[in-house]
Amino acid sequence: xxxxxxxxxxxxxxxxxxxxxxxxxxxxxxYLIKTMTGSEERTKWRQNIELxxxxxxxxxxxxxxxxxxxxxxxxGENIYTYRDMIxxxxxxxxxxxxxxxxxxxxxxxxxxxxxxxxxxxxxxxYIEHLRG
Length: 132
Fold this sequence. Notes:
Blueprint: E1 2-7, E2 12-19, E3 22-36, E4 42-54, E5 57-60, E6 68-77, E7 80-83, E8 85-88, E9 91-102, E10 109-120, E11 125-130
């Protein structure tokens, strides 16, 4: 079984959009780390994704100069808070939020919502093996 997560530090945020009642944070690309169960080796991949917050409100970040490199932060759903990463897949109803930083900036991207999901485009592209 593979375990996959998006590594937030280094991923490129290219757009923040308000679409109907959704707040969409676009990563182009996002960097994925895949780990095979029972193996110490990991692999790095890239893929364009959108982090979609349903019934969301953009609290901060609407004036951010994009594109910008994500410096990390938190993405939360219900009782879980993921620091500097997002599990793949992710789809959850209930309280959701994010608080992301960008390199060289004081403005953060902050969203409160009633659900969160990942929308992935195409197939991930292999970058490299990561050795312990």
